[in-house]
Specification:
511 residues
C-alpha cells in the first residue's frame, strides 16, 4: 500500500503487532460478552437451559474444526486471504446471531462464529513468530498479550452496559465495529503470500471423524447436567462413543505420514507437563468465570451493570499485573514459585467468595476480585513461556494448535461441570431449606403474618397479600439455595487450586 511507504519500518511493525492483538482480543471480547450475557440471551430466545447449551457447544465444535484445518488453509491461501476471510465469516455469524429469533438460528450462528473466529488466537500467535525476528518478537509478544487481556477486561462491563441501555442483541452488534476494523487491517497490513498448491487435499475424512467425535462428546457434556442421575447409562454410552471416535482419530493421526494433527512432534515431557497445567488453568478459570455472574447477580442480588464492572475490575487488575510482570520477569530465573503463588491465591480467592453473607455488596468482593485478577497473570503467562520453549520453530505451530484445541475442550468441560454441580446442589439445598421451614411452623407463620401486614398496608387485599408473602418467601429460599450452592462450588474450586499448587510444587519439568 502506498501510504505504508510513508511509515518507518518500526511503525509498520507496530501496526502489524496491534492488528494481531486486535484480532485475538476480538475473539476473547466476544466470547466473554456472550458468556456474561447468556442468561439474558436465553430469555430473549425463550429457550430453556437444556436447549441453549447447544449454542455453547456449536461454537466449540466450529472452533475446534477450524483450529484443526488452520495449517492447511493458511498454506493454501496465505494468511492475508485466510484471516480476512475468517474475520468476514465471523462477522456474518455475528449478524446472524444478532438477528436470531429462535434457538436453531442461534445454534447455526454460533457455529459460523466458531468457524470464523476459532483459529484467530492460533493464527495470530503463530504470525508473531513468523512476521517478527528475534529482536522485535518480545515487543510483539507483549502487545499480543495486552490485546488479549484488554479484550477480556472490556467484555463484561461493555456487555452489561449494552444490555442495561438496550437489548440483548446489542451484545452482538457491539462487537461488529471491532471486527470490521480487524478485517480492514488484515487486508491492508498483512503481507501477500503466494498460495501453495503442494498442500495436498483438505483431508476431509479425518476432519469428519474428528467432527463426529467432538459433536458426540459435546452432546454428552451438554446432556450431563440433566442425565447424570436420571439416565446415567445413556450418558455413559454417548460419552464412550465419543471417546472411541476420538481414539480412532488420534490413532489414525499417529500412524499417518501427513497428519492433520502432528502428535509425534509433541512428545517432549516439558511440553506435555505444560499442556496439563494449561488444562488445569483453563478448567479453574472457566469454572470461576461461569460461576461469578450467577453468584453476584442472582445469589447476592448485585445489579447487572455493577456485576459487569466487578468482572472488568478483576480483568483490569490482570492488565496492571501484566505490566508489572513484564518488567520483573527477565530478572526471575525460576517461575515455579510464581505459579504456585498464583494457584494458592486462587484458592484463597475462592474461599473468600465462599464466606460471603447474603447481603454482601461490591466492596466486600473487592479483595477476592484482586486475587481473581492476579491468578491469570501469575499462572498462565509463566506457563506459556515455559511450555513452548522446548519446541523448535517447526513444532511451535503444531504445539499451539494442540494447546488451543485443549483450551476449547477444557472450557466446554468446565461449563458442563459447573452447570451439573450448581443445578444439583441448588436443588438439594432448596429441598433442605423447605424442610427446615416446615420444621419451624410458628416462626414461618409469624414471618408470613408480618409480610402480609406490610403488603396490606400498601393497599393489597388479603388474597393478594397472602400470595405476595408466599412469593417473597419462595424468592428468599431460592436466593439462599443459589447462594449456598455457589459457595459450595467455590470451595470445590479452592480444593482444585490447592491440588494444582501441590502438583506444581512437586513436578520437575517446569522450573
Amino acid at each position: 500500500m502506498r501510504w505504508l511507504r510513508w511509515l518507518s519500518h518500526r511503525q509498520r511493525q507496530t501496526l502489524l503487532m496491534m492488528l494481531l492483538a486486535l484480532a485475538t482480543g476480538l475473539e476473547f471480547l466476544e466470547n466473554i460478552m456472550f458468556v456474561f450475557a447468556s442468561s439474558h440471551i436465553v430469555g430473549g430466545l425463550d429457550a430453556d437451559p437444556r436447549s441453549f447449551a447447544l449454542v455453547q457447544a456449536a461454537y466449540a465444535v466450529g472452533s475446534m474444526l477450524m483450529i484443526l484445518k488452520q495449517q492447511w488453509l493458511s498454506r493454501r491461501f496465505g494468511y492475508r486471504y485466510y484471516l480476512t476471510g475468517a474475520l468476514l465469516l465471523f462477522m456474518a455469524g455475528t449478524v446472524v446471531a444478532a438477528t436470531s429469533h429462535a434457538l436453531p438460528q442461534m445454534v447455526v450462528a454460533r457455529f459460523i462464529q466458531g468457524v470464523g473466529g476459532g483459529a484467530l488466537f492460533t493464527s495470530c500467535r503463530i504470525l508473531v513468530n513468523v512476521l517478527f525476528g528475534p529482536t522485535a518478537r518480545p515487543r510483539a509478544t507483549r502487545i499480543f498479550m495486552i490485546g488479549i487481556f484488554s479484550g477480556s477486561a472490556l467484555g463484561p462491563a461493555f456487555a452489561a452496559e449494552l444490555i442495561d441501555h438496550g437489548v440483548w442483541q446489542d451484545v452482538f452488534y457491539g462487537v461488529l465495529p471491532f471486527a470490521a476494523l480487524a478485517t480492514l487491517g488484515a487486508w491492508l497490513l498483512l503481507p501477500d503470500a503466494e498460495p501453495r498448491t503442494d498442500t495436498g487435499g483438505p483431508a476431509l475424512g479425518p476432519l469428519l471423524l474428528f467432527g463426529a467425535a467432538i459433536v458426540t462428546l459435546q452432546a454428552a457434556l451438554t446432556e450431563a447436567r440433566f442425565d447424570v442421575f436420571s439416565h446415567p447409562l445413556r450418558l455413559a454410552l454417548v460419552a464412550a462413543a465419543g471417546l472411541a471416535l476420538l481414539a480412532v482419530f488420534l490413532w489414525h493421526q499417529w500412524h499417518h505420514s501427513e497428519p492433520v494433527l502432528h502428535l509425534r512432534a509433541l512428545r517432549h515431557p516439558v511440553y506435555l507437563t505444560g499442556l496439563a497445567m494449561y488444562f488445569v488453568y483453563y478448567m479453574i478459570s472457566n469454572l470461576s468465570g461461569y460461576l461469578f455472574p450467577i453468584y453476584a447477580e442472582q445469589a447476592l442480588k448485585i445489579p447487572l451493570a455493577a456485576t459487569g464492572w466487578l468482572n472488568t475490575f478483576a480483568a483490569l487488575v490482570s492488565l496492571a499485573g501484566i505490566f508489572v510482570y513484564l518488567q520483573v520477569a527477565p530478572r526471575l530465573t525460576r517461575k515455579k514459585p510464581l505459579m504456585v503463588a498464583g494457584l494458592v491465591l486462587m484458592a484463597a480467592t475462592a474461599w473468600w467468595f465462599s464466606q460471603m453473607p447474603p447481603d454482601a455488596g461490591p466492596p466486600a468482593l473487592a479483595w477476592g476480585l484482586v486475587g481473581k485478577g492476579l491468578f491469570g497473570v501469575l499462572v498462565i503467562i509463566p506457563i506459556a513461556g515455559l511450555t513452548f520453549r522446548a519446541l523448535g520453530p517447526d513444532e511451535f505451530a503444531h504445539g499451539y494448535r494442540s494447546k488451543n484445541l485443549m483450551r476449547q475442550v477444557a472450557g466446554s468441560f468446565a461449563s458442563a461441570l459447573g452447570a451439573v454441580l450448581l443445578q444439583n446442589r441448588q436443588f438439594a439445598v432448596h429441598d433442605s431449606l423447605l424442610h427446615a421451614v416446615g420444621q419451624r411452623p410458628a416462626e414461618t407463620e409469624h414471618w408470613m403474618a408480618a409480610m402480609q401486614a406490610a403488603l396490606a398496608a400498601r393497599g393489597f387485599d388479603a388474597a393478594q397479600a397472602h400470595l405476595g408473602a408466599l412469593a417473597q418467601l419462595n424468592g428468599l429460599i431460592e436466593q439462599q439455595a443459589r447462594l449456598i450452592a455457589c459457595e459450595d462450588i467455590y470451595r470445590l474450586i479452592a480444593v482444585l487450586a490447592l491440588g494444582a499448587a501441590a502438583y506444581m510444587l512437586l513436578q520437575r519439568r517446569l522450573p
